[in-house]
Amino acid sequence: MEATNKKTWKPTTGGILNIIIGSCHLLGALGVIFALLFIVSFSKSIILEEMWNQLGQQGMGLGIIIAVLVCVILFMAIIGTLSLVGGIYALKRKMWGLALTGSIASMLGSTVIGILAIIFIAMSKDEFV
């Protein structure tokens, strides 16, 4: 006689936490993209030209600012995507490793919620197929 796997609330809760954090990161990346577009499009305006000149004198030009913002966008997009995908697989109770990876990515974004997601996913390993 086979033992049936009892479904608990743990992977569902961990998956929802991952999806919330992943969505917030993707929205944050979108916000940084808009900020980057604003900076690039208005970099030649009179108001910002003086600021760029001052930054250029301090050794920090517009190119460095754009490079940093692009790195922030990539980081947020990768973390957000991993968290979102891990949360979806946690809700489906499939691919425990990917669900745990999404929880670890969530921890990089929001420490307390990410740790809770890791705990819930790790405690429910036997519920995954």
Question: How does this model look, in words?
Answer:
It is a single chain. The chain is 79% helix and 0% strand. By secondary structure, it is mainly alpha-helical. It has one domain. It is rod-shaped. The model has no long low-confidence stretch (mean pLDDT 85).
How many structural domains are formed by the residues? 1
Assign the structural class, choosing from mainly alpha, mainly beta, alpha/beta, alpha+beta, or little secondary structure: mainly alpha
Distance between the termini: 19 Å
Helix share, percent = over 70%
Tally of DSSP helical segments: 5
Instruction: Give a quick account of the main beta sheet: strands, pairing sense, barrel closure.
Output: none
Q: How many whole angstroms does the radius of gyration measure?
A: 20 Å
Regarding quaternary structure, how should these chains be classified?
single chain
